[in-house]
Amino acid sequence: MHYDLIIIGMGLSGLMAAKTAAEMGKRIMIVGKGMGTLCLFSNTIDLLGSLPKTVNIPDGLSQWVKDHPNHPYSKAGPKRVEEAFASFLSLFPPPYSFQSLGDGNCLIPTGAGTFRPTYLVPNTMIAGATLKNRNALIVGFRGFKDFYANDVADQLGCRGVSLSLVEAPHPEISATALSRLMEKESFREEVAREIKKNLVAETQVGLPAVLGVQNPFRVKKGLEEMIGVEVFEIPILPPSIPGMRIFNRFKEWLIQKGVTFLLGHPISKVILKGKRCEGIYLLNPPVSNFYSADRYILATGRFIGGGLVADEKKIFEPIFSLPVTQPKSQEDWFRKSFFNNLPHPVHEAGILTDPSLRPIDEGGELLLENVWVAGSILSHHNAIDEKSKEGIEIATGYMAAQKALQE
């Protein structure tokens, strides 16, 4: 089967590339062996969390591009980054939408009891960014071991309480199971009654980010009406329920637009002819199916997503065997102290590209003329230290699709 564009990778960069290409009216297939890291880590949308809170994002991004000419943001440019974010936001109209507080980063509470800088926040969390007077009751649930309300509350200077779960089928419960329970009105009523009993003078209630997958804003508003105070979600350990919401929204939209969506299919082989990719084989035991396209986007992420793989000697890219920028020796992957204020060199490993995001070698020679690269697998960034992961994925996924289908 032949397509205009095949996108390899189900992370945010692949999903953004698929959305952008679908809006251009092209025949698209997106394939991935898993759901990417959205469902593990993404709760909010970072653009440049390392910027001081007083610096507005447009000015900070423009300066960043000048200071980091090889960075993915520099290849996209501030204008395209802005366009990409607008495209992302268009998928999330009210009631469940993403917001920023002014033009800069805001600080939201985390499941560790710290405050974390980020740019776009789902409206189920935004009230946590105004936690100024520490006048909130932090609520957890007995048997849910990914969020310890009393510990979080102590760090935030608030009160905490852990509620018993009458409707929970087991003494221990997961984030996904708890989020499904939250979508049941009877369970929400029980939770609201228990919270109300424990309120003293608090004007806010902070809950772990499990207020349902399908309609979290309705769950939030329902709890607020029953309790009588403002409710907000707090990001917790993986899996990320807010990340699942993002993934599900993209999947629903892409399928409606006619995009072929193949989840759980690893690539067993690629067919290369000169500097062109002629097609890919997808493993669907006991057979491999062949698919071809005019253009391809590689958006497989770094190590967690399997986009980069390491052996005892080096880091390599397993699908197209593209060269990976990396420290010369494995001994240089990490600094002598693991918990160091400086970023580890291994976190900057990635694929070199030309200005259009096509892969090149260290000498600048184009390696594949109909393949584009997007997302965290790109070189010359440290998304962990910069707090830029989602921003890079959104911007380069958007750009890669545009470049692939315009050239």
Give structural notes.
Strand 4 and strand 5 form a beta hairpin. The strands form 5 sheets. Strands 1, 2, 11, 12, 13, 14 and 17 form a 7-stranded mixed sheet that branches. A 4-stranded parallel sheet has the order 8-7-9-10, with helices on both faces. The protein is globular. Helix 1 (12-23) runs parallel beside helix 12 (389-406) and helix 8 (185-198) crosses helix 9. The chain has helices at residues 12-23, 38-41, 57-67, 72-76, 78-90, 149-156, 175-182, 185-198, 216-227, 241-256, 383-386, 389-406, and strands at residues 2-8, 28-32, 98-99, 106-109, 115-118, 121-122, 136-141, 159-163, 204-208, 230-234, 260-263, 267-273, 276-284, 287-298, 309-310, 315-316, 371-373. The protein has 2 domains: 2-95 and 244-406, 3-Layer(bba) Sandwich (FAD/NAD(P)-binding domain); 126-234, Rossmann fold (3-Layer(aba) Sandwich), CATH 3.40.50. 31% of the residues lie in helices and 21% in strands. It is built from 12 helices and 17 strands. It is α/β, with parallel strands linked by helices. The longest helix has 18 residues, at 389-406.
Write the layout of secondary structure elements.
Elements: E1 2-8, H1 12-23, E2 28-32, H2 38-41, H3 57-67, H4 72-76, H5 78-90, E3 98-99, E4 106-109, E5 115-118, E6 121-122, E7 136-141, H6 149-156, E8 159-163, H7 175-182, H8 185-198, E9 204-208, H9 216-227, E10 230-234, H10 241-256, E11 260-263, E12 267-273, E13 276-284, E14 287-298, E15 309-310, E16 315-316, E17 371-373, H11 383-386, H12 389-406
Parallel strand pairs: 1-2, 1-14, 2-11, 7-8, 7-9, 9-10, 14-17
Antiparallel strand pairs: 3-6, 4-5, 12-13, 13-14, 15-16
Helix pairs in contact: 1-10, 1-12, 5-12, 8-9
